[in-house]
Amino acid sequence: MKAGEGVDNKYFHSVVLQEDQCIGCTSCLKVCPTEAIRLRDGKARIIGEKCIDCGECIRICPNHAKNAVTDKLSMLQNFKYKIAIPSLVLYGQFSGKVGINAMLNALKNIGFDEIYEATMGTEIITQVIREKILKEGSIEKPLINSSCPAILRLIQIRFPDLLPNVIDIETPIEITARIAKQEAAKKTGLNISDIGVIFISPCTARVTSIRNPLGIQKSYIDGAISMKEIYGTIVRNLNVFPEEYTTTSNREALEWSITGGQSKAIGVDNYIAVDGINEVIKVLDEIETGRLEGLEFFEGMCCAGGCIGGPLTIENPYIAKTNMRALAKGLPCADISEERIKEYIRLYEEGFIRLTEPIEPRAIMKLDKDISISMKKMEMIKEILKYLPGLDCGVCGAPTCRAFAEDIVKGENQKSICIVKTMENFKKKKI
Amino acid sequence: MDLIQYNFDVQKDDFDRAGEASSNIKKILRQLGIDAAIIRRIAIATYEAEINIVIHSFGGEIDLEVDPSSIKIIAKDKGPGIPNIDLAMQEGYSTASDKVREMGFGAGMGLPNMKKCSDEFNVKSEVGKGTTITMIMYI
User: Fold this and answer.
1) Please, which residues 268-327 of chain A have a Cβ atom closer than 8 Å to chain B?
2) B33 contacts in A (CB within 8 Å)?
């Protein structure tokens, strides 16, 4: 099955392969953290069931054959009232000379009626975690942030027993979208279905999560446009229109999309903030085996630097971070009244901004439903491995010799062979 | 034959690779489709056993045996052995050096923790020869 085949597909993925550009080089095989890619007939194939949309393959592909399916601007026509929620990451994509107001006005004038800043969502999450979840202690420690969709999917697959530690609150964008839609409906008198909320996304996994949400029944976000794709249009619009929008962001919000920003905002002492999917895996491993005692909060971000390093961004994450820092200096610190905190907690208690659906473990690594058959398959894998060179060269199309053996046992590889082994046998033959 | 066996070498003082055996065992059990909660207990216990070999012994090995009803972990090492097992089983008791403690190990929770994680637990030790810890978890 090819990933991204249809919208209704259970395994819809934002990350897809542009076949004509793939030369079968094995680069992506090696970086995939869930071993979800195989080369078949000289082209990379994504195994939909295993892909977590982290975007590592998009980043590494030297031929730009890996891409993300996102929505097009033309989708705005489907709605009477259009709201854009740009990821806060957008603010770091311009040099320090461009102000937030200028960016947001440029974005609005592409064809949106209104802009909502994700700051609203970050503020709500921060307060609910700080004033409600941490104080009540109803969720297992260490709390795990629910904001990175790739990490959530990783936990489902590789660390299912840490699922109870995931904070049951929506992401900043989803929360902002919900409030934006409600407010717009009240203001315009339109039906909710006539109001379109479009997310300007730095993240492939978020695009997938909008169509295939985790923890909620349906997303309030109607579409996601790649930040990369809309960037040029924003740049062309800069300083063309009169400024009518003034940012309501604060310093804390700007740090949210940078690793460590959430922990800092929440204000816990014993936290760990990790970015880069491989480092996240290592630290989750430590948490799983109980080696990080007393840890209160784990902030895991799939991309280097946090969301600011997302696969659909333009600027280098370190430069973007510097840009964000410059912008943050000109903003006030968050100042939230007791009433507003109470209101946020009420929204959480009523379930409006909460993950209401269970996030189920996905045991895709298991060889068979029946343990004795699994055991037999495991023995076969061990047996096959004895005859493989252990170089993990990837030429057979599997990322490792072990994956090659597993594919054979699972019946997922009838065709490909180990070239290294074949060559060795060839050499041994006497003429 | 409904039995799976794996064997992992553990070297003395090899902190670089410490955790590799428990990590591999976790992967194998996940592929077999063992319940996540059981895997977690085994991962904790195996890691403790592995670290014990690295810190206290002259080297050893960890064996994994799986049959359809239970998982057995055997941690065997070569010397120096535990003189007083009852004492070693007490929480907080440790013979680790200050250097090792500085690294965050040797809190004296190793053996008690392993026992807590297992359904059956056994320590055999002979001073000068070595220690064998056997842990069984039911599936």
Assistant:
1) 285, 288-291
2) 363, 366-369, 371, 374
Mutate to test the interface with B, among A154, A367, A375 (most CBs of B within 10 A): A375
Residues A137 and A22 in one domain: no
Residue A112, domain member (yes or no):
yes
State the pairing for strand pair B60-67/B4-10: antiparallel
- Per-residue tens of pLDDT for chain A, all 431 residues: 344 343 445 667 888 888 889 999 999 999 999 999 999 988 999 998 899 988 899 889 999 888 888 899 999 999 999 999 999 999 999 987 899 999 999 999 999 999 999 999 999 999 999 999 999 988 999 999 999 999 999 999 999 989 999 999 999 999 999 999 999 999 999 999 999 999 999 999 999 999 888 999 999 999 999 999 999 999 999 989 888 889 999 999 999 999 999 999 999 999 999 999 999 999 999 998 888 888 999 999 999 999 999 999 999 999 999 999 999 999 999 889 999 999 999 999 999 999 999 999 888 888 998 888 999 999 999 999 999 999 999 999 999 999 999 999 998 887 788 988 888 888 887 66
Domain hosting B70: range is 4-138
Inter-chain touch B32–A367, beta carbons under 8 Å: yes
Q: Under a CB-based contact definition with an 8 Å cutoff, are residues A298 and A274 in contact?
A: yes
In a domain, A361, yes or no: no
Side chain identity at residue B119, one-letter code: D
Number of domains in chain A: 3
Tell me: do A263 and A194 sit in the same domain. yes
Residue A402 touches chain B, beta carbons under 8 Å? no
Tell me, yes or no, whether A354 lies in a domain: no
Smallest CA–CA distance, residue B41 to chain A, in Å, is 8
Residues of A with Cβ-Cβ distance to B34 under 8 angstroms: 371
pTM over 0.80, yes/no: yes
Residues A115 and A244 in one domain: yes
Please state the domain count of chain B.
Answer: 1
Q: Output the six-digit token pair for A367.
A: 């060889």
In a domain, A359, yes or no: no
Indicate if A41 and A156 belong to the same structural domain: no
Tell me the residues of chain A between 115 and 154 that have a Cβ less than 8 Å away from chain B: none
Measured N-to-C along each axis, helices B36-56 and B20-32 cross at an angle, to the nearest 10 degrees, of 160
Closest CA to B73 of B91, B48, B37, B92: B48
Pairing between strand A43-46 and A37-40?
A: antiparallel
Give the chain A residue whose CA is nearest to the CA of B117: A289
What is the residue range of A180's domain? 73-349
Q: Which helix (H) or strand (E) is B121 found in, with range?
A: strand B120-126
CB contact under 8 A, B66 and A285: no
Closest residue on chain B to A158 (Cα): B30
* CA atoms of B133 and B15, how far apart (whole Å): 20
Tell me the torsion sign for CA atoms A218, A222, A226, A231. Answer: negative
